[in-house]
Specification:
This protein is an alpha/beta fold. The chain contains eleven helices and ten strands. It has a single domain (29-346), classed as Aldolase class I (TIM Barrel), CATH 3.20.20.
Length: 355
């Protein structure tokens, strides 16, 4: 099927001006950022990439973040996703953060397990969100409890919360896309169809099925030897469930990349992206959260502009450019497709004028 959301691709091609400045050697600010409002989490998923951060009960300082958001908007950040190393909805001010982000002109999104996403939240925030993504990794209560490591009835709570969000979205005619992400695992692959039928019935916009991708610092070794060659065939099973109102994105391309070598030798994508964790630290990207070698600075101590133009960030980018072996980086990372594109721009083939 056509990837209308470009989930298995990138959207940097739509930011020609920023890419041109980068190609010309100019300093640019990121287009997209991810922010972790909470270090704590109300689940302990078996596949959790950030188990090594130990789910610390800490929450980003709201006042400091709002100042940061104002600066980010002024400096050209176009989008922010609230997600990160914990569950965003555990932060008491998450609604204020989301609505303020939209208010200052930044496109806003949220990734959540959905347990706390009740009708009050949907009424107050859906109008500020470009998209809302739930993490659901099973089609039954029993398997959900096993993978999310929680009580079986939580599955029903989350499904109900999605249904409520959909009703509010439709009633208020909000453009927010409501989607679900499903990590394909040996325990749950037989339940994808069941979940898809449920989601289609309650009015969700899409279901994304993606592979487990091991984080380099992850403690759990449960899925170390998972081979997705045995699951690619599943892609053919879901076409009949799709409709004009419900899409299923089976990320076969992402699965295939897990066994492939990278086609680029440098990470050029970092100037377009950054992450902020619940302690206020700003990092290069998700695979290095918590690693001080990849920490640009802290938004509690310095402004966004000071951090982005600071000496430490310049040193990190220099280190990445000269020493980082991208072949050893996390497979199919967030910047992978962007890096392929930027590598081609930096290393064009012969005869480019013969288009």
């Amino acid at each position: 099927m056509m990837d209308r959301l470009r989930i298995d691709n990138h959207k940097l091609i739509y930011h020609v001006d920023r890419v041109k400045k980068w190609l010309d050697g100019e300093s640019i600010y990121p287009i997209y950022m991810e922010i972790s409002p909470s270090g704590a989490c109300n689940q302990r998923c078996s596949f959790c990439a950030f188990d090594y951060l130990k789910y610390k009960v800490r929450f980003i300082n709201t006042k400091k973040l709002l100042v940061f958001l104002s600066d980010a908007a002024r400096l050209g950040v176009k989008s922010i996703m609230y997600a990160g190393e914990g569950e965003p909805l555990l932060h008491k001010d998450i609604k204020e953060m989301i609505n303020y982000t939209k208010k200052v002109g930044i496109d806003t999104a949220l990734a959540t397990n959905g347990v706390l996403l009740d009708g009050d939240f949907s009424e107050g925030c859906l109008g500020s969100l470009s998209w809302l993504r739930f993490s659901i990794n099973a089609g039954t209560n029993k398997t959900y409890a096993k993978i999310h490591r929680c009580k079986p009835q939580v599955f029903d709570v989350v499904i109900k919360n999605i249904e409520t969000a959909v009703k509010i979205k439709k009633r208020k005619k909000y453009p927010c896309a409501i989607g679900i992400q499903f990590i394909l695992l040996p325990e749950n692959y037989k339940e994808i169809k069941r979940l898809a039928i449920t989601l289609k019935r309650i009015g969700a916009d899409y279901l994304t099925i993606k592979p487990f991708i091991r984080h380099p610092s992850q403690k759990s070794k449960i899925y170390n030897n998972l081979n997705y060659d045995n699951f690619i065939y599943l892609n053919e099973n879901f076409q009949r469930l799709q409709s004009d109102d419900f899409d299923i994105y089976f990320r076969a391309h992402c699965m295939e990349k897990l066994n492939a070598d990278r086609s680029y030798r440098k990470c050029f994508g970092l100037p377009f992206f950054a992450e902020v964790t619940s302690d206020g630290n700003m990092y290069t990207c998700g695979p290095y959260l918590g690693n001080k070698r990849f920490c640009y600075g802290n938004i509690y101590r310095n402004s966004f502009k000071e951090i982005w133009n600071g000496k430490k960030r310049k040193q990190i980018l220099k280190m990445v450019n000269k020493k980082l072996d991208v072949a050893q980086c996390m497979k199919s990372c967030r910047l992978d497709e962007i890096n392929k594109y930027l590598w081609e721009l930096k290393n064009p083939p012969p005869h480019v004028n013969f288009i």
